[in-house]
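Final paragraph of the annual report: two paired records, presented back to back.
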Amino acid sequence: MLLFQDQKKTKQLIALFGVGLIGSATAQAFTNSGEFKAHYLNWGWQETERGSQRQLSELVAKLAENSEISGITVLWCAGQTGFTDALTYSELTNFQIVLDWLAGQYRTSPELRYNFHMVSSAGGVFENQQGINSNSTPLPQRSYGALKLAQEESILAAAWLDERHIYRPTSVYGYPEPGQRVGLMPTMILNGVSNRVSTIFGQRDILRDYVLNEDVGNYIGKKVPSGECRHATNYYSLVMPGCWN
């Protein structure tokens, strides 16, 4: 999805990838603000790298024909359900395609500002760790966490970016659309209102923190267009209030 800001003198283009649980809530926050117009892009992950990049470039050029764009921001909310090596490799490949495309835009128009906002995973990069804080060291235990850390490192290595924003939410829940995976919290809610028993497998001493997808989306939706960046690289821990400093 491409979101074009046309209500201010400083106009930016946001390329949002992934409209699942977090991405759809974030897109809704943008459109609800009244500052952005949405243009849906039929992006196919199975297409060739060159074809995908050309498709993006053509649409960006079309939007910029009658408007002066001050910058391009990529917001990566994409993620494939599952933890297999094949799925994580596919996502990393497509992530790199998008980052390479943005680098190409920079080489063509270096006068613009280029920012990258990425939704990572606190549970993925800090799995099995306790007492997590800003000084904790990422130590992924599975391929999914290794994927998220690799994506973070790719952004950090892109020295040409003006800003890098990495969001590390804890367990995100929400009300899935038809066809989306139903997680623990929606399942328990549905079973509760239907007077059915929920069976949970796991260790009783494991603690999990849950945050609503709409809260995550609203936060990111305000942070991306704000322009209130203190540092070139920023990390955000998105958790339930009072659970994490």
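The closing record of the year follows.
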Amino acid sequence: MRRAGHARAVSLAMPRARAVPGTWGPVVAMTLATALAAQVVLRLPFGPVPFTMQVFAVVLTGLLLEPGRAAAAQVAYVGLGAAGVPWFAGLMPLVASGPTLGYLAGFVVAAPLIAALRGRLGPVAAGGLGIAGIHGLGLLHLSHLPGMDASTAALLGVVPFLPGDVLKLGLAVAAARRLGVQAGPSRWRHPCPES
């Protein structure tokens, strides 16, 4: 009888495992969405950082998933790229994406940050803070490259991208709403609750 009580207590304490699609499907989808967004590349003549749609995918990840899943999606994207999957901007491997390493680290920070803050601040403010985090880590890394200081890094790696990132933020919020997320700080809910 004691054994049955112990088994019952353990089963109550441990959450039931969900089917793979319910648990990992949204994570895999957002990992792949980020990889696809990285293939929309416009190389700019004045700097080492290309224009891509990755920020859109990272913000959308944070708007659709819970913090843990949002982090998992971006860790998978960066981790698989580091392991050799050539899916960074323009199908580049990690070794060729040196100037963008700070931005890649920013993706891992921004997606769960957006997910954690969207309910309190609303999607636009949370997304804006996530984008600031991406640019902050990107700027930090760029400013340590040979021949770069902080002001040059900001002029080449942040300022030209801000108008496009505002547009990407708007597109991500619209896409999240279209996918069934309700707007407003207190009502911002997502279709993929964490298990």
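The mean pLDDT is 80. This concludes the annual technical report; the extension proposal builds directly on these records.
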